[in-house]
Design goal:
eight-stranded mixed β-sheet; globular; Rossmann fold
Length: about 270
């Protein structure tokens, strides 16, 4: 029987942060953080399995899913503060951070600002936010919000679906979760996402890192940077998920869960609970 998750709400800076907790108390904490425009259901195939052994926290990031209204304008640093508040509410000084897409940016920023709060990281389909980028790359990224503002909202919601996943059920979930937002809410979120990059040439993630992406992930520079990022990061396990796109964790959920459990067994042993 899979563990039951109990729902909670933490009111913080004008936003009711919805989060769910399951698994044995006292076991190492594993936090699942979803990507932009979706919600905690991104980890429905994985969180219950992990919660059979670990304490698990899933949440709707500010401005996503049930965590509405967003209250204070969304930003990655604010999301980091939100997550720290949730960890504090659970009484955990440290956690393993598991992120997908924008969830990897929140996880990376937390590790950068508060490394003592992070035991290990598992990052799926996200780029390195501290990687040095050209002025042209930054201009294109900053201009993206203006371009998106010109497009009809239905076009925005549907145009990226073939790049997200080839699986119809994954596309359907993405569209449904995205549709919980208004266009204005989406643009506000996107403006918060694109400002997360900061060049830190000498910075390296020092915690153990599981880094993975789909072999057909064509989103941004994820696939280009990932092998370079892995090569310069100590204690990095780099995996490419076959026959997967940007939502690799849902394109092959069984493979992702196996990789994650093996990673946790090595770097968050239950004997440490």
């Amino acid at each position: 029987m899979q563990p039951q998750f109990k729902p909670f709400i933490l009111e913080r800076q004008g936003c009711p942060l919805h989060y769910w907790v399951g698994g044995p108390q006292g076991a190492p904490l594993v936090v699942f953080t979803h990507g932009a425009c979706v919600d905690h259901r991104s980890f429905d195939p994985h969180a219950p399995v992990v919660a059979e052994q670990y304490r698990v926290l899933t949440w709707d990031v500010r401005g996503h899913g049930l965590s509405q209204p967003a209250g204070a304008p969304f930003s990655i640093p604010l999301a980091v503060e939100d997550l720290l508040a949730l960890m504090d509410a659970l009484g955990y000084p440290k956690a393993v951070l598991v992120g997908h897409s924008n969830g990897t940016y929140i996880s990376q920023e937390l590790a950068y600002r508060f490394p003592e709060r992070v035991q290990a990281l598992a990052l799926a389909d996200g780029t390195c936010i501290t990687w040095p980028r050209s002025a042209l790359d930054r201009w294109i990224l900053n201009a993206s919000a203006t371009v998106m503002n010109w497009l009809p909202f239905e076009t925005l919601k549907k145009s990226g679906l073939p790049y997200i996943s080839a699986r119809q059920e994954v596309q359907a979930y993405t569209y449904q979760a995205f549709s919980m937002l208004t266009k204005a809410q989406f643009i506000a979120l996107w403006n918060g996402v694109i400002t997360c990059l900061h060049d830190e040439p000498d910075y390296r993630i020092r915690q153990p890192l599981l880094l993975l992406h789909g072999d057909d992930d064509r989103t941004g520079d994820i696939k280009k940077i990932a092998p370079l990022w892995a090569a310069q990061t100590p204690n990095c396990q780099y995996e490419v998920i076959p026959n997967a796109k940007h939502f690799a964790i849902l394109d092959d959920p069984e493979r992702f869960t196996r990789l994650l459990l093996d990673f946790l067994a090595q770097w968050a042993p239950l004997t440490a609970a």
